[in-house]
Design a protein that fits this description.
- This protein has 72 residues and is of the alpha+beta class.
- Helix content is 29%, strand content 11%.
- It contains 2 helices and 2 strands; from the N terminus they run αβαβ.
- The chain has helices at residues 29-35, 48-61, and strands at 40-43, 65-68.
- Strands 1-2 form a two-stranded parallel ribbon.
- It starts with 28 loop residues before the first helix and ends with a strand.
Length: 72
């Protein structure tokens, strides 16, 4: 999969590949966030009823404050 040149990650950016709707399931996301002391997540995406819903619920269950971005 290619990343569009306008949003290509910088060297210092953390990239986590997920293979399920839950961005925390079988990934290092939780560990990376905890190691940086992150407690609040702002989440945005395309399929609110699928991956976004699952990840928001999991983040909340793990103790994160969750803010969901809404496009109008």
């Amino acid at each position: 999969m290619e990343i569009h040149p306008t949003i290509v990650p910088k060297e210092e950016d953390v990239m986590i590949k997920k293979e399920t709707p839950d961005a925390f399931h079988k990934t290092t996301l939780h560990q990376k966030l905890k190691s940086k002391g992150i407690e609040k997540l702002v989440i945005a995406g395309l399929q609110t009823e699928y991956c976004i819903d699952t990840t928001c619920r999991r983040a909340y269950s793990l103790g994160y404050e969750v803010v969901l971005v809404r496009c109008t």
